[in-house]
UniProtKB/TrEMBL annotation:
The keyword Lyase applies. Keywords: Lyase. One of its GO terms (biological process) is fatty acid beta-oxidation. Its EC number is 4.2.1.150. The keyword Cytoplasm does not apply. The lineage of its organism: Bacteria, Bacillati, Bacillota, Clostridia, Eubacteriales. Belongs to the enoyl-CoA hydratase/isomerase family. GO terms for molecular function: 3-hydroxyacyl-CoA dehydratase activity. InterPro entries: ClpP/crotonase-like_dom_sf (IPR029045), Enoyl-CoA_hyd/isom_CS (IPR018376), Enoyl-CoA_hydra/iso (IPR001753), Enoyl-CoA_hydra_C (IPR014748). It holds the Pfam family ECH_1. Homotetramer. Pathway: Lipid metabolism; butanoate metabolism. It catalyses: a short-chain (3S)-3-hydroxyacyl-CoA = a short-chain (2E)-enoyl-CoA + H2O. It comes from Clostridium estertheticum. This is short-chain-enoyl-CoA hydratase.
Amino acid sequence: MEYKNIVLQMEDKVAVLTISRPKALNALNSETLKELDLAIDEIANDDKIYAVIITGAGKAFVAGADITEMKDLDVMGGRRFGNLGNKVFRKLETLEKPVIAAVNGFALGGGCELSMACDIRIASVKAKFGQPEVGLGITPGFGGTQRLSRLVGLGMAKELIYTAKIINAEEALRIGLVNKVVALEDLLVEAKALANTIAGQAPIAVSLCKAAINKGMQLDIDSALSYESEIFGECFSTEDQSSGMTAFIEKTEKCFKNK
Ligand code: DAK
């Protein structure tokens, strides 16, 4: 499918989705959010894709929701815009494939929120993170108040959100917002290496792990462990469990089929 503000490339088992609206620092307007929605569906429906990378074109990852579009919204318009963003980010978070955010530059407001809807974040040394919404008279609207505190803890999330402070990649690493910081020129290489390592595992098992971790974090420990047992059992209905264990025992090359 052709997109205006997104480039979607399928590279063997890995989809690389680049948000490309560089004149507005890749700010998310409704059009881009709707394209993201379609691109996630395209990735979800492609059985050959086992992992996803999201990055931004130019000097920004995503500099936030589009302020030009938001400026004149009324209450209903604000809700509609918020609902659209939340729907798309949740679709990404619950996509049955792991998603890596390769954060090349500014990840502010909706951009920081987009990275947090991904499973893993790798940042370039040029990346900057923040939730500057209170400085614009609004609250974070695409999950920032919820996902940031879950990732970095209540105190740090409240400080970042209340002060609208922008932090660099090293600080993001220190507080646990990102997994790794690398040189800008190495960012996609590192992200692809990680994506390919993940894509080399049994895809259904990886997908079930994503569901178990995400769902389990919202449950009490007994319910979470019970969910873990349930999905562990499910693995034994797959060909990949049988072939993976056979390859180990027979000391042969493993070859997963996503079945
Ligand atoms: N929206 C629209 N345009 C943007 C933009 C944005 N978020 N960020 C940058 N741009 C545009 C600039 O206006 C400029 O356009 P022109 O003037 O060239 O036409 C162009 O991108 C280049 O930007 P700068 O000239 O400012 O570039 P600099 O390198 O000097 O500065 C910057 C880079 C990232 C520090 C700066 O652009 C900046 O501060 N941008 C805004 C960052 C920001 O505040 N982001 C948070 C946006 S608020 C909700 C739903 C969603 C949200 C909230 C509620 N509900 C419905 C409840 C989410 C809110 C946000 O994300």
